[in-house]
From TrEMBL:
It comes from the Bacteria. The gene is ubiG. It comes from Paramesorhizobium deserti. The keyword Mitochondrion does not apply. The keyword Protein biosynthesis does not apply. Belongs to the methyltransferase superfamily. UbiG/COQ3 family. S-adenosyl-L-methionine binds at R41, G72, D93, M136. GO terms for biological process: methylation. Pathway: Cofactor biosynthesis; ubiquinone biosynthesis. Pfam families: Methyltransf_23 (PF13489). This is Ubiquinone biosynthesis O-methyltransferase. Its EC number is 2.1.1.222, 2.1.1.64. Keywords: Methyltransferase, S-adenosyl-L-methionine, Transferase, Ubiquinone, Ubiquinone biosynthesis. O-methyltransferase that catalyzes the 2 O-methylation steps in the ubiquinone biosynthetic pathway.
Length: 249
Protein backbone atom coordinates (compact mmCIF):
# COMPACT_ATOMS: atom_id res chain seq x y z
CA UNK A 1 0.00 0.00 0.00
CA UNK A 2 1.37 3.39 -0.93
CA UNK A 3 1.91 5.91 1.81
CA UNK A 4 -0.56 8.76 1.45
CA UNK A 5 0.19 10.65 4.65
CA UNK A 6 2.90 10.93 7.28
CA UNK A 7 0.40 10.65 10.08
CA UNK A 8 -1.89 7.80 10.97
CA UNK A 9 -4.67 10.03 12.23
CA UNK A 10 -7.81 10.45 10.15
CA UNK A 11 -9.41 13.51 11.79
CA UNK A 12 -12.86 12.70 10.40
CA UNK A 13 -12.74 9.25 12.02
CA UNK A 14 -11.62 10.70 15.36
CA UNK A 15 -14.45 13.25 15.26
CA UNK A 16 -17.00 10.56 14.37
CA UNK A 17 -16.12 8.39 17.38
CA UNK A 18 -15.77 11.39 19.70
CA UNK A 19 -19.39 12.39 18.99
CA UNK A 20 -20.68 9.08 20.32
CA UNK A 21 -18.10 8.53 23.09
CA UNK A 22 -20.68 8.60 25.87
CA UNK A 23 -22.19 5.43 24.38
CA UNK A 24 -19.09 3.25 24.94
CA UNK A 25 -20.29 1.50 28.09
CA UNK A 26 -23.95 1.15 27.13
CA UNK A 27 -24.36 -2.51 26.05
CA UNK A 28 -27.57 -1.63 24.21
CA UNK A 29 -26.23 1.57 22.64
CA UNK A 30 -24.29 2.42 19.53
CA UNK A 31 -21.42 0.10 20.50
CA UNK A 32 -23.67 -2.91 21.15
CA UNK A 33 -21.87 -4.96 18.43
CA UNK A 34 -18.56 -4.50 20.26
CA UNK A 35 -20.11 -5.61 23.55
CA UNK A 36 -21.43 -8.72 21.79
CA UNK A 37 -18.07 -9.28 20.06
CA UNK A 38 -15.97 -8.75 23.19
CA UNK A 39 -16.25 -12.23 24.80
CA UNK A 40 -14.98 -13.91 21.62
CA UNK A 41 -11.97 -11.67 21.18
CA UNK A 42 -11.18 -11.63 24.91
CA UNK A 43 -11.11 -15.43 25.05
CA UNK A 44 -8.81 -15.57 22.02
CA UNK A 45 -6.46 -12.90 23.39
CA UNK A 46 -6.23 -14.53 26.83
CA UNK A 47 -5.63 -18.02 25.40
CA UNK A 48 -2.88 -16.89 23.03
CA UNK A 49 -1.07 -14.66 25.54
CA UNK A 50 -1.06 -17.44 28.13
CA UNK A 51 0.23 -19.96 25.59
CA UNK A 52 2.99 -17.63 24.34
CA UNK A 53 4.21 -16.59 27.79
CA UNK A 54 3.70 -19.91 29.59
CA UNK A 55 0.93 -18.67 31.86
CA UNK A 56 -1.87 -20.64 33.49
CA UNK A 57 -5.13 -19.41 31.93
CA UNK A 58 -7.03 -20.59 35.02
CA UNK A 59 -4.98 -18.42 37.37
CA UNK A 60 -6.84 -15.38 38.77
CA UNK A 61 -4.31 -12.91 37.27
CA UNK A 62 -2.46 -14.83 34.54
CA UNK A 63 -1.12 -11.70 32.81
CA UNK A 64 0.69 -10.39 35.90
CA UNK A 65 4.02 -8.80 34.96
CA UNK A 66 3.16 -8.24 31.30
CA UNK A 67 2.97 -4.71 29.86
CA UNK A 68 0.15 -4.31 27.34
CA UNK A 69 -0.89 -1.52 24.97
CA UNK A 70 -4.42 -1.21 23.61
CA UNK A 71 -4.01 1.20 20.69
CA UNK A 72 -7.23 2.90 19.62
CA UNK A 73 -8.71 1.84 22.94
CA UNK A 74 -11.93 3.84 22.65
CA UNK A 75 -13.77 3.79 25.96
CA UNK A 76 -11.64 0.97 27.39
CA UNK A 77 -13.74 -2.12 26.59
CA UNK A 78 -10.58 -4.23 26.27
CA UNK A 79 -8.35 -2.34 28.69
CA UNK A 80 -10.47 -3.10 31.73
CA UNK A 81 -10.62 -6.90 31.36
CA UNK A 82 -6.89 -6.98 30.55
CA UNK A 83 -6.18 -5.03 33.75
CA UNK A 84 -8.36 -7.44 35.73
CA UNK A 85 -6.27 -10.31 34.34
CA UNK A 86 -3.21 -8.67 35.85
CA UNK A 87 -1.58 -6.87 32.93
CA UNK A 88 -0.08 -3.41 33.29
CA UNK A 89 -2.24 -1.62 30.72
CA UNK A 90 -1.70 1.50 28.65
CA UNK A 91 -4.79 2.56 26.70
CA UNK A 92 -4.16 5.05 23.88
CA UNK A 93 -6.62 6.82 21.63
CA UNK A 94 -6.43 9.90 19.41
CA UNK A 95 -9.79 11.09 20.75
CA UNK A 96 -9.47 13.02 24.01
CA UNK A 97 -13.21 12.52 24.55
CA UNK A 98 -12.83 8.73 24.38
CA UNK A 99 -9.94 8.86 26.84
CA UNK A 100 -11.93 10.96 29.33
CA UNK A 101 -14.81 8.47 29.14
CA UNK A 102 -12.37 5.60 29.68
CA UNK A 103 -10.70 7.33 32.65
CA UNK A 104 -14.03 8.00 34.35
CA UNK A 105 -15.22 4.42 33.92
CA UNK A 106 -11.93 2.96 35.19
CA UNK A 107 -12.11 5.21 38.25
CA UNK A 108 -15.67 4.07 38.92
CA UNK A 109 -14.59 0.42 38.76
CA UNK A 110 -11.39 0.93 40.78
CA UNK A 111 -8.98 -0.07 38.02
CA UNK A 112 -5.51 1.44 37.55
CA UNK A 113 -5.11 1.97 33.79
CA UNK A 114 -2.72 4.41 32.15
CA UNK A 115 -4.96 6.16 29.60
CA UNK A 116 -3.38 8.60 27.16
CA UNK A 117 -4.79 10.80 24.40
CA UNK A 118 -2.00 10.18 21.91
CA UNK A 119 -0.99 8.38 18.72
CA UNK A 120 0.92 5.23 17.87
CA UNK A 121 3.72 7.20 16.25
CA UNK A 122 4.09 9.47 19.29
CA UNK A 123 4.33 6.47 21.61
CA UNK A 124 6.86 4.77 19.33
CA UNK A 125 8.93 7.95 19.11
CA UNK A 126 8.99 8.10 22.91
CA UNK A 127 10.53 4.62 22.97
CA UNK A 128 7.59 2.82 24.59
CA UNK A 129 7.89 -1.00 24.61
CA UNK A 130 5.26 -3.64 25.33
CA UNK A 131 4.98 -7.42 25.64
CA UNK A 132 1.60 -7.29 23.90
CA UNK A 133 -0.04 -4.77 21.59
CA UNK A 134 -3.79 -5.01 20.96
CA UNK A 135 -4.69 -3.45 17.63
CA UNK A 136 -8.39 -4.23 17.46
CA UNK A 137 -10.79 -2.69 14.95
CA UNK A 138 -8.38 0.20 14.31
CA UNK A 139 -6.54 -0.29 11.01
CA UNK A 140 -9.69 0.36 8.97
CA UNK A 141 -9.94 3.81 10.55
CA UNK A 142 -6.39 5.15 10.17
CA UNK A 143 -5.08 7.38 7.39
CA UNK A 144 -1.98 5.31 6.64
CA UNK A 145 -2.03 1.59 7.43
CA UNK A 146 1.65 0.93 6.70
CA UNK A 147 2.87 3.83 8.83
CA UNK A 148 0.50 2.90 11.64
CA UNK A 149 1.58 -0.75 11.75
CA UNK A 150 5.23 0.26 11.48
CA UNK A 151 4.85 2.47 14.57
CA UNK A 152 2.97 -0.29 16.43
CA UNK A 153 5.59 -2.86 15.44
CA UNK A 154 8.37 -0.71 16.87
CA UNK A 155 6.72 -0.94 20.28
CA UNK A 156 6.53 -4.75 20.45
CA UNK A 157 9.37 -6.32 22.41
CA UNK A 158 11.31 -9.16 20.75
CA UNK A 159 9.15 -12.32 20.86
CA UNK A 160 6.23 -10.12 21.94
CA UNK A 161 2.76 -10.32 20.38
CA UNK A 162 0.51 -8.08 18.34
CA UNK A 163 -3.16 -8.89 17.82
CA UNK A 164 -4.94 -7.24 14.89
CA UNK A 165 -8.68 -7.44 14.25
CA UNK A 166 -10.32 -5.80 11.27
CA UNK A 167 -12.72 -6.28 8.35
CA UNK A 168 -11.80 -7.82 5.00
CA UNK A 169 -12.28 -5.82 1.81
CA UNK A 170 -14.67 -8.18 0.03
CA UNK A 171 -18.11 -7.85 -1.50
CA UNK A 172 -19.38 -10.12 1.26
CA UNK A 173 -18.04 -7.67 3.85
CA UNK A 174 -19.60 -4.76 1.96
CA UNK A 175 -22.97 -6.51 2.11
CA UNK A 176 -22.81 -7.71 5.71
CA UNK A 177 -20.52 -5.34 7.64
CA UNK A 178 -21.50 -2.08 5.94
CA UNK A 179 -24.87 -2.30 4.15
CA UNK A 180 -26.31 -4.90 6.53
CA UNK A 181 -24.88 -3.69 9.85
CA UNK A 182 -25.10 0.07 9.24
CA UNK A 183 -28.02 0.61 6.86
CA UNK A 184 -30.36 -2.35 7.35
CA UNK A 185 -29.93 -3.55 10.95
CA UNK A 186 -28.57 -0.19 12.15
CA UNK A 187 -26.17 -1.90 14.55
CA UNK A 188 -23.65 0.88 13.87
CA UNK A 189 -24.03 4.53 12.84
CA UNK A 190 -23.99 5.01 9.07
CA UNK A 191 -20.52 5.82 7.81
CA UNK A 192 -18.70 3.91 10.56
CA UNK A 193 -16.81 1.98 7.88
CA UNK A 194 -15.77 2.92 4.36
CA UNK A 195 -15.30 0.03 1.95
CA UNK A 196 -12.13 1.43 0.38
CA UNK A 197 -10.43 1.59 3.80
CA UNK A 198 -11.03 -2.06 4.65
CA UNK A 199 -7.88 -4.19 4.68
CA UNK A 200 -7.35 -7.60 3.09
CA UNK A 201 -5.37 -10.25 5.02
CA UNK A 202 -2.57 -10.33 2.46
CA UNK A 203 -2.19 -6.54 2.70
CA UNK A 204 -2.11 -6.76 6.48
CA UNK A 205 0.47 -9.56 6.40
CA UNK A 206 2.73 -7.58 4.07
CA UNK A 207 2.59 -4.51 6.32
CA UNK A 208 3.22 -6.60 9.45
CA UNK A 209 6.18 -8.36 7.85
CA UNK A 210 7.64 -4.98 6.92
CA UNK A 211 7.22 -3.96 10.57
CA UNK A 212 9.28 -6.95 11.74
CA UNK A 213 6.38 -9.19 12.72
CA UNK A 214 5.44 -12.67 11.55
CA UNK A 215 1.84 -13.87 11.50
CA UNK A 216 1.50 -17.04 13.56
CA UNK A 217 -2.29 -17.43 13.61
CA UNK A 218 -5.35 -16.35 11.65
CA UNK A 219 -8.98 -16.52 12.78
CA UNK A 220 -12.22 -15.57 11.13
CA UNK A 221 -15.08 -14.29 13.29
CA UNK A 222 -18.68 -14.87 12.24
CA UNK A 223 -22.06 -13.86 13.60
CA UNK A 224 -24.77 -16.42 14.39
CA UNK A 225 -28.19 -14.69 14.24
CA UNK A 226 -29.91 -17.68 15.90
CA UNK A 227 -27.87 -17.33 19.09
CA UNK A 228 -27.10 -13.60 18.68
CA UNK A 229 -23.44 -14.38 19.26
CA UNK A 230 -20.02 -14.14 17.60
CA UNK A 231 -17.79 -17.18 17.18
CA UNK A 232 -14.36 -17.98 15.83
CA UNK A 233 -14.41 -19.50 12.38
CA UNK A 234 -12.26 -20.43 9.40
CA UNK A 235 -14.27 -17.90 7.38
CA UNK A 236 -12.19 -14.72 7.11
CA UNK A 237 -14.34 -13.13 4.39
CA UNK A 238 -15.78 -10.47 6.71
CA UNK A 239 -14.38 -10.10 10.25
CA UNK A 240 -11.01 -11.60 11.04
CA UNK A 241 -8.19 -11.54 13.60
CA UNK A 242 -4.50 -12.24 13.14
CA UNK A 243 -1.79 -12.84 15.72
CA UNK A 244 1.80 -11.83 14.95
CA UNK A 245 5.06 -12.27 16.86
CA UNK A 246 7.93 -9.79 16.82
CA UNK A 247 10.92 -11.40 15.17
CA UNK A 248 14.01 -11.46 17.38
CA UNK A 249 16.96 -10.05 15.48
Amino acid sequence: MAETARTTIDSAEVERFSRIAAEWWNPEGKFRPLHKFNPTRLTYIKEEICAAFGRDPLAPRPLEGLRLLDIGCGGGLLCEPMARLGATVVGADASETNIEVAKIHAAETGLDIDYRATTAEALAEAGEKFDVVLNMEVVEHVANVDLFLSACGEMVKPDGLMFVATINRTLKALGLAIIGAEYVLRWLPRGTHQYEKLVRPEELEKALNSAGLKIIDRQGVTYNPLTDSWNRSRDMDVNYMVLARKIRE
